[in-house]
């Protein structure tokens, strides 16, 4: 049989005569200089609708014309570097900025058909409707039972002691704390662990029947186990409430939220589905921040 | 260091990503060498060269295990997101493809041993003709995809993905030719089987090279274009990258 002489492979042969691919859709990341909000700021049947919200501290603009919907039964996470305006925006949602001297809020924040910034709006029922959980647990220096019962009592939500007992029990159950405290309701709230105190504060917020719960870094003072409990709780509460959370933990934002809003220097830069933002953000600033390139 | 992998506030993270990238390219270089050597052993009719390829296969496997370990460590430490996450996923998948290319190179080398390290007659020129042609094509493809991975150049990767798959065309033609030879002379059957297995391995190496190009598109453009080249090539292949 004839011996063969096969052709020698040449590994460095250039790939030639390749046609240039056609360019139609530009899908690249949005440039850092672009300050308009990228992504869908509106949702169907929002619980709150913010339009062109600007906040000024002593004439200094802290938030620039932010428009964003807070959807029903969703957790929206506000993220961004320190000083970007996310907490300021959060506080606008139940007029907590009213307590800051020389703070002015412009724009419209609609809820149930009215603008919460209108002069005739009473902030006390508003803050029951839009409850808030803070960075550090802040139980009242009272018993566990009184911590929960205080809100419904002053808002006149109950007629009798037994009704109040029911609210205390159901609120603590919703906050996942009932089994741990049911036998010591008369003990001070401050005697609980940090994680339990934070869940007590969440129960206190729930007790007055809110529609929206605002959370400003609710786990930053907690250990990983307590954090995991709160995150589980947030996921359960989402079935009944709209939740808006500020967090510095990217992993927490990825775990608990369905939508992400990224703020930078007072501008709302990007809004999007959480999975999309964490796998392929559209704005370069978002990418730089969540990948730890600044902030 | 590649710019796309840099810029983290934690500089060590830059180093870890770049290290993974470099290790993957090192593995690519080794695998490329294995493919070249396997094809060279056919060209030179050298059982020694083929034996070298078979013996070096474990080096590829070792690199794969090390890469997997390092990838797990970076994921555990850094919880990567966005492009960093895509880089990690792409490198992980590319590592698997490279290991399989290494397997195919060893398979070709074993076939070369079966032919040249035995007392049987050598195969005819016509039977082996296509192995050389397809070998040239596949080494060019692999070289191109590894270069694109080196520079993370999605446009270059897109060109590889979107051009006609000449290797596949050649593979199909080759199968038809081999069938004809067998019909002409059934005594060719032993070497024809060897040849079919060789070109099948070469064709698979080509598929893996194209997979590597797909991962580059995934890293840079965030698009999963597996099994959907046509739509991508008609629309997004030329999109600018950042």
Structure description:
The complex is a heterodimer of chains A (295) and B (242). Chain A is α/β, with parallel strands linked by helices and 295 residues long. Chain A has a single domain, classed as Rossmann fold (3-Layer(aba) Sandwich), CATH 3.40.50. Chain A is 31% helix and 23% strand. Chain A has 10 helices and 10 strands. Chain A has a 6-stranded mixed β-sheet, sandwiched between helices. In chain A, helix 3 packs parallel to helix 6, helix 4 crosses helix 6 and helix 6 runs parallel beside helix 7. Chain A is globular and about 60 Å long. About 7% of the residues of chain A have low confidence. Chain B is an all-alpha fold and 242 residues long. Chain B is built from 8 helices and no strands. The model of chain B has no long low-confidence stretch (mean pLDDT 91). Classes of the chains: A alpha/beta (295), B mainly alpha (242). Chains A and B meet through helix 8 and helix 10 of A and helix 1, helix 3, helix 4, helix 5 and helix 8 of B.
List keywords for this structure.
heterodimer, A: 295 residues, alpha/beta, Rossmann fold, four-stranded antiparallel β-sheet, 10 helices, 10 strands, B: 242 residues, mainly alpha, Methane Monooxygenase Hydroxylase, Chain G, domain 1
Largest sheet of chain A: 6 strands, mixed
User: How big is the Rg of chain B?
Assistant: 20 Å
**What's the rounded overall pLDDT mean of chain B?**
91
**Unreliably modeled segments of chain B:** none
Q: Provide the succession of SSEs of chain A.
A: EEEHEEHEHHHHEHEHEEHH
**Global morphology of chain A:** globular
CA distance, first residue to last residue of chain A: 73 Å
Percent of residues in beta strands of chain A: 15-25%
Number of self-contained structural domains of chain B: 1
- CATH architecture of chain A, by name, is 3-Layer(aba) Sandwich
What is the spatial order of strands in the main beta sheet of chain A? 6-7-8-3-9-10
